Amino acid sequence: MKIRTLNPNLIQLTRLGFVNAYLVREDDGFTLVDTTTSGAGDDLIGAARGAGAEIRRVAVTHGHGDHVGSVDELKHKLGDSVPVLMPELDARIHAGEKVVEGKLPGSWPKVQTRPDVRLQPGDRVGSLEVISSPGHTPGHVSFLDTRDRTLIVGDTYTSFGNVAVSNHFYLRFPLAAMATWDKAKDLESARALRALDPALMVVGHGPAVAAPGAAMDRAIARAGG
Ligand SMILES: [Zn+2]
After folding, report:
1. Distance, CA of 115 to CA of 111 (rounded, Å)
2. Beta 10-15 vs 2-7: how paired, if at all?
3. Cα gap 97→51, rounded to integer Å
4. pLDDT reported for residue 132
5. Distance 94 CA to ligand 1 centre (A)
6. Residues 6 or more apart whose Cβ sits within 8 Å of residue 23
7. Sheet holding 128-132, edge to edge
8. How far apart are CA 98 and CA 31, in angstroms?
9. What are 101-114's pLDDT values in tens digits?
């Protein structure tokens, strides 16, 4: 697992070269945002300890397998005192509810852990504000760090090569568009995230983008917006 310290509040963890999770530093330890694929538990816990603190909570941007893949393992290893937070609609999908019509694209592996918290837009997770960004999945959320306007956008955007919205096929990372549930909503969310005017954008797949406004504008234009 590749570990990059992006700023004093944020560490990027990259597995398999293309799947990111993030450690967000808080006074009591770390919030882990996303968990990558299955089998990453020890690496994620080790990365936090290497950076000098424990994981205090696990929050995910959405329910796809490359984001919730190690939730069960982390719950098992960290115990019940470390809550798991999942967006409301994606938590209901994982619980077996049918919340939208038709088949959901992307990987929805079995997750045994019932989230301790079902996240709603506007909720706070430490310094992070939960931002509604549906489209890639029905419940997809982003997290805005209110201290420095870092925006963790999950899979609404990718950043291999050009910054791209996941509503359309993009050769450098086609998996994101193939897994996107509602392309119109995804583009609408991409616009809403741009309007937050983030100082730094970090994504589920690809490198961090500093001062991302212009790149987000170009991505939205290419996405048909
Ligand atoms: Zn995804």
Report:
1. 10
2. antiparallel
3. 38
4. 98
5. 14
6. 10, 11, 13, 30, 31, 32, 33, 47, 48, 51, 55
7. 124-125, 128-132, 141-145, 150-152, 200-202, 209-210
8. 29
9. 988 999 999 999 99
CA of 113 from ligand 1 middle (Å) equals 19
Query: Pick from 166, 160, 168, 164: which is nearest to 206 by CA?
Result: 160
**Cα of 62 to ligand 1 centre, how many Å?**
7
Residue 225 has pLDDT above 80, yes or no: no
Residue range 182-198, pLDDT digits in tens: 999 999 999 999 999 99
Instruction: Encode pLDDT of 131-177 as tens digits.
Output: 999 999 999 999 999 999 999 999 999 999 999 999 998 888 888 99
- C-alpha 125 – ligand 1 centre gap (Å): 21
Residue 190: burial class (beta carbons within 10 Å; 0-12, 13-18, 19+): buried
- Calpha distance 93→31 (Å, rounded): 23
Please work out, in degrees rounded to the nearest 5, the angle formed at the alpha carbon of residue 157 by the alpha carbons of 193 and 211.
60
Q: How far is the CA of 43 from the centre of ligand 1 (A)?
A: 21
Coil/strand/helix, residue 21? strand
pLDDT at residue 190, rounded to an integer: 98
- The stretch 31-56 carries a mean pLDDT of 98
